[in-house]
Amino acid sequence: MRSLVFLFALLFALCTHPFLGEAQGGPIMELVIDTDNNTLQAGKDYYIRPVPTSPSIICRRPPCPVGPGFALQSTTPNKTCPLNVVVVRGTGQAVTFTPVNPKTNREIYTNSDLNIKFDVKSNCSESTVWKLVNDASSGQRIVTTGGVIGNPGKNTVNNWFQIQKDDNDYNLYFCPKVCETCKPVCGNIGVFQDSNGNSLVAITDKPYKVRFQPVSS
């Protein structure tokens, strides 16, 4: 009789609790893998590298080549601050990722909220933590600096981003879940060309494929 009760209890637990990697009521969460085929780690330096779309670039031996990089840059003529997130030639600048609970979870998962910070020194007063803002000059929602690490909630909702799986690559996404009462307008993080020729990282219609390259590679 006891064994029968235990069996029913076990079946109930399996039916009512999600398996590891599956979010309740949401998309599946998987470990993010970098270009060295290792799991993405919180606090470690990475380059965010857009995936080349040119058909002339052939990948014969993984990891496949990557394109330009993400960096900080002033996009306002004759001003050095604030700094916005842009795509530039070369590797770009290193970033770190911080999940909602960095003390208990050091690995980065897809479809989970995280902060992104450029691990560089800046002469501007704003922090180098990513933040989504409405840009009056372009009419776009762009990624700039001045966010904060942690403190999930209503006041920091624009500081949280996600990584989504995209075939064998990834894309960045804005759809924070850190505030249950907030209703953020979700969107893909892509590239928008402004009137000054800057490749601004912003909300776009189409996903923008990226990979994560360890700085030590």
Essential attributes:
217 residues, mainly beta, Trefoil (Acidic Fibroblast Growth Factor, subunit A), 6-stranded antiparallel β-sheet, two-stranded antiparallel sheet, 1 helix, 12 strands
Short description, anyone?
With 217 residues, the protein is mainly beta.
What does this structure look like?
The protein is mostly beta strands. 7% of the residues lie in helices and 30% in strands. The protein has one helix spanning 2-16, and strands spanning 46-50, 69-73, 84-88, 95-99, 114-118, 131-135, 140-144, 162-166, 169-174, 187-193, 199-204, 209-214.
The CATH topology is given as Trefoil (Acidic Fibroblast Growth Factor, subunit A)
Sheet with the most strands, sense and barrel status? 6 strands, antiparallel
| Strand runs, count | 12
Name the structural class. mainly beta
Low-confidence stretches: 4-23
Overall spatial form: globular
CATH class: Mainly Beta
SSE map:
Layout: H1 2-16, E1 46-50, E2 69-73, E3 84-88, E4 95-99, E5 114-118, E6 131-135, E7 140-144, E8 162-166, E9 169-174, E10 187-193, E11 199-204, E12 209-214
Antiparallel strand pairs: 1-12, 2-3, 4-5, 6-7, 8-9, 9-10, 9-12, 10-11
